[in-house]
Design a protein that fits this description.
With 239 residues, this protein is mainly alpha-helical. The protein has helices at 28-35, 39-44, 94-118, 123-142, 145-238; strands spanning 61-64, 67-70. 64% of the residues lie in helices and 3% in strands. It has a two-stranded antiparallel sheet with strand order 1-2. α3 (94-118) packs antiparallel against α4 (123-142). The longest helix is centred in the C-terminal third of the chain and has 94 residues, at 145-238. The termini are far apart.
Length: 239
């Protein structure tokens, strides 16, 4: 499926590109036919092949909004992009080459300014050279992407390890703090139990003393009452 309308003209430069003509094939009838049909048969049907989901590509390239993308994501060479390579092949010092290309950009820009002053009609040659320099710079930088991805992954894993280690340390510290609090509560409970036992024993002793004192007082009262009764009987006998 390409980015064209029914007339075949590309719609990439349109602000609101028209939908492709095959959207008209998405009718209820065709959808029902697709549901009742085998995938291979649908791919052979001139109408249903636009409704059937094609298998994902495994090799080659595909186009999205006018840009070519490789199925196997890999960095294309400058030769594949029809760009002149401005640095040597083989092992190189990429930092030194990037600095050299950066100086080349400044030099080419000065050349462009000089051309615009003397012969503006020749500016396209200078802009092409500047473009080649920038593409070479980007290509060198993109060769670091794999290394950058590995280092980023290592950093993320290290951050996760550090975060989990800190969480573990906080948990252990909190557990230790809880153990100390529990031990303190146990000691306070034991002290409170001893105080309660002492208070109960003291209260029992006080109660026993009170009961004993009341009993003695009752006995004395009883003796006094008996003595008074005898005295009354003696008086009544005399009368």
């Amino acid at each position: 499926m390409d980015d064209t309308q029914g007339s075949g003209r590309p719609q990439l430069d349109a602000s609101y590109p028209a939908p492709p003509d095959y959207y008209k094939l998405f009718t209820d009838t065709n959808i029902q036919r697709l549901a009742d049909m085998d995938h291979n048969e649908a791919m052979e049907d001139p109408e249903l092949k636009f409704l059937a989901v094609p298998p994902p590509p495994k090799t080659g390239s595909y186009t999205v909004f006018g840009r070519m993308w490789q199925v196997c994501d890999q960095l294309p060479t400058l030769a594949e992009q029809n760009i002149t390579q401005l640095y040597p092949d083989g092992p190189i010092d990429r930092v030194a080459e990037l600095k050299r290309l950066n100086h080349s950009v400044l030099f080419e820009f000065l050349e462009l300014v000089d051309v615009l002053v003397k012969d503006p009609s020749q500016f396209s040659t200078c802009t092409e050279r500047i473009r080649d320099v920038f593409v070479n710079i980007h290509h060198l930088i993109n060769e670091y992407r794999e290394h950058q991805a590995k280092e980023t992954l290592k950093l993320m894993i290290q951050q996760q390890i550090d975060s989990k280690r800190q969480a573990t340390e906080r948990t252990l510290a909190k557990c230790k703090e809880l153990e100390q609090t529990i031990e303190q509560l146990k000691r306070e409970a034991a002290d409170t139990k001893d105080e309660i036992s002492t208070a109960v024993a003291s209260e029992e002793n006080q109660t026993d003393s009170t009961v004993q004192g009341n009993a003695e007082q009752h006995t004395q009262t009883q003796i006094t009452q008996d003595g008074l009764a005898k005295i009354l009987e003696a008086v009544q006998g005399l009368t």
